[in-house]
Structure formats: C-alpha cells, structure tokens
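User: My instructor asked us to take a sequence, write out its structure as tokens, and then describe one feature of it. I'm not sure where to start. Here is the sequence I was given:
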Amino acid sequence: MRGDLSRRDFLRRAAGFSGAVLAATSLGSVVTACGGTSATASPAGGASQGSSSAPASASAAASAAAKSGGTLQAALTGEPDSLDPATSSIYTGAQVYDNIFSKLVDLDENNQIVGVLATKWAQPDPLTWVFDLVDNATFHNGEKFGAADVKYTFERMLDPKTASGYAPLYDAIASIEATSPTRVTFKLKTPFGPFLNNLANNGEIVNKKAISAKDPARNPVGTGPFQFVEWVQGDHITLKKFDGYFRAGRPYLDGVQFKFLLVDQSRIESLRSGNLDWADAIPLQSLKALSADPTFTHITSPIAGIPDFLAMNTAKPPFNNKALRQAIAWALDRKQIRDVAYFGAGEVGSEEVPSGSPWFGGSDPDANGPDLVKAKAQLAAAGITTPFTIKYLGLPQYPELLKTGEVVRDQLKAIGINLTIEQVDVSVWFDRFTKGNYEITSAYQERTIDPDNFYAIVLRTGGSINTTFYSNPQLDQLIDQARSQTDVAKRKDLYVAIRQIVFEDAPLIFAHYETINYLMKKDVVGSTVNPTLELRLENVWLNR
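Assistant: Let's start with the prediction itself. The structure tokens for your sequence are:
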C-alpha cells in the first residue's frame, strides 16, 4: 500500500453502514493470542467447547529467552478516529486499542480459537454458550473484571443509542446473564455458527464505570497488557506497560509508541536508522527486495489479508444486466492485475478468503480466464453492441485500486468495451459508492475470518454494506442457513453453493487477495500475523 491516504483511513472495521458511515474491519500486525489452547474444531468457530492454558505458538516458544524492557517504536498507516471499541469506525483504532482491551476469546496465528478472559467455554445446546472467566483480571482504573462487565459490554454494543457498527455481529443474542462473578451465559435467538469467530473479531470487554467517567473515545480503559498514556493528534499514540496485567510476566515491553506514517521509502529509512523498530506495511514495489534483506525480519501469512473486488451497481443500467457482468468476469486476466497493480504481491483474486484459509473452496469457474470467446458471447447475450462505454469510479489516493481500474480498462478493450475512469476524492467516492451513484469501482472487505462476515453484510439483500444492491432470494436463504448452521462441514458445503451463485450472477468479481506484510528490525522478536489483523504486542520483546 502506497499513496497519500491509507486504506485504514477509509475502510472500517467489520460490521456495516451506520447512517452514511461505513463500519467494517481492520488491518495490522499481531503477535500470538493472549493465551489458550485451541478450540476443538477447525475452521475456527465450529467448536462447541474449548479451554485456556498456555499459548501454543511460535512466539510462546520464543518467550523462553525473552527479555523485558524497552519501548517499541511502531509505524501505523493512518490515525485512529476513536479508541472506543464499540464505536471506532477506522480500523487503525483496533491496531491500538486491542493492546489496551482483552476479549473473551481470540484467534491465534494458526486460526485457532484461544481463551483470553475466558478460561473455558461450552455450548450445552444450540442456543446457549457458557463462558468461565479468569478471576485475576483488573481494569486499568482499578475495577475488578467480572461477568457483569461482559454483560454490559455486549448490551451496550447492541443498544441503538451506542450506534455501534458491530451490533449486526451480535444480533443473534437474545439475552446475557452473569450467573456468577466468573461465569457468563449467552442465550441466542437462533443457532449461530459464527458466534465464536465474532467474539474473536470484535469482542473487546469494557468497564461501565470507566465508560461513564470519561469520553471512552479518548480515554480507553481495558484489562489488556498496555495502558493508555497520550494521543498527540496527527503524530502518535503512546501506551505503557500495565503492571496489573492478569497474565504473569507479560507484557515484556515497557511501552509502545505508535507513529502515524505514510507507506513510502521514508519509513524504510527510519527502520534502517533506528528511529523505527516495526512497520505495519511496506511499499509493494520494494517487497521482494525488503523481504530478502538480512537487515530486517519480514512476516506474512497465508491466512490473513484483504479480498479486493470489482463492485458493479446491479440496481441500474448497464450492470443490472447479468450477461454484461459475466462478460466482464470472463474478460479479466486477474494474474495480470496482481502482477501490475500489486507488483506480484498477494494472491490472484478468487474468493472472499485466501487459499490458506480452512474455508477456501477453490471452485472459481473463472480461474482459467480470460476467455475472450465466452466474454464476447456474453456480450452478445446481453444485447450489447460494441464499442460500448462503461464508467469506473477511481480513487487516486489508493494506487493499487486505481491501477486495477487501469489494467481492467486495457483488458476490456479486447472485447470492445471502453472503460473510462473518473478519479474523485475519497469522501466523494464514499458518498457515491454508498448511495449507488456509480457503475463500476474497486472495493474490498477486511477481516473475513468467517465467510458470514462477507456474504451476510456485503451480498445479502439489504446487507449493511451491500453497495452493489444485489438481491437474490435463493442466495439469501443459503446465507441464512449457513449462519444458523453449527456443523462446520455443513457450513463449508453451504458456502461452496453460495459462491457458485455469486460466480454465476457476478454482482462483484474477486480481483485480488492482498496478503499482509510486516517489516521489523532483527532485534524485534515475537511478532506474528493474526487472522483478525490486529496488533497485540504482549508477547513482543526487544533482543537488545
């Protein structure tokens, strides 16, 4: 990612539109989850029970020789809008506040559910989840953590007055009961397969007294390994080690300073000079050289990233014509999109999840494209006479997305389609994209840990970020079946069927899957990429 404006300033963290504001998902480097053995099923989220013990991860193994002390100087691509987990809309906020707060459960770098504030959990019946909690966690304001805080957190998130973009992730909750200080019970309205994954995605626990005392957007108080110190607008946020953290011996660092920096050569020079220790992204044109540079440690993951796609407005001409959308899909050379727009980084676009995900189906019928014969046949079926002009809404602030449009423009010439690019500022783009004032554009959705995080909100009729305005009752029924199904194998089969409908109807076309790349100095130890794309730095240490 390069350019003047980060995607972190543009794409929101995980749930849906709130008024005219998009709430979606998040990007960032991570270390291992805060603790716990994995739940018993894979993909994550299908387990009916789990327990917490020692973290089974690469960073846990490295911790045997860990040194304490030092402040990590970390580069973030953008600045948070808020540090309140329920209302933050720019996902850079999660990169910071997930070091301040803790969740009941989380996902480790191997995509396994692990316990954090929950020591164990069980699903005694399809409508009930029971979590036993740690008894030694304390909030940074001195309040003892307990089941009442869990109840308050999710009731606050679901309260319309909070206007949380993440409420749709928990709308299956019927009630929450603090059955004891260390046990909480969730009752669901219907069976809900993504429940554990959603808790891992956006389940930071807050304290009622802290929320009431000061503006939580600027005064975050959690039970996490680091405590908020200051926010200097436009420059940095500083955290310090929380001495009362419930995991003995953590964190190793004395503190973290997050600096808001562009993804350009200057951050690489700062890493070389020692002004930075760690960076959350690197210029893609330099990825090959930097990943092989012995000066640095480069980390990526096959199971974490961002699906980029071409979105078409199906509510009005010309893309209310399915055959035209299919023609576009058959005309695309997505390998060329990756090679040109992303400098060969990431994966060829195929699905909402990467090929390393346990949810990956691998059944994209357009994978062998382009097929210009089929593309021209679909144009004829659409009743299109060439040359034919379509309009692409472009974002010059996001070079990879704009370059994708330019590559697509050149590819469509082969079937007689003239794609014109209108470049607009991100605020204009956002307004037009959300209101349907566009024909075709590039977009993406982050943290698609569970396919439901994509299909239920991006493509279901009336979905909170369904900006293609696509509607198919058959697809809606399958999406609802998949999210109410708790058997992992059956859910996977349903998503295979869902994808086939999407491939056929082509309201959007997966163009690229962007994998995550972190770069750090050799003496930074314990950082790993986590599927939730957050920064959790409690296991990171400096070998100095």
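For the description part of your assignment, you could build on this observation: The longest strand covers residues 118-125. Try explaining in your own words what that tells you about the chain.
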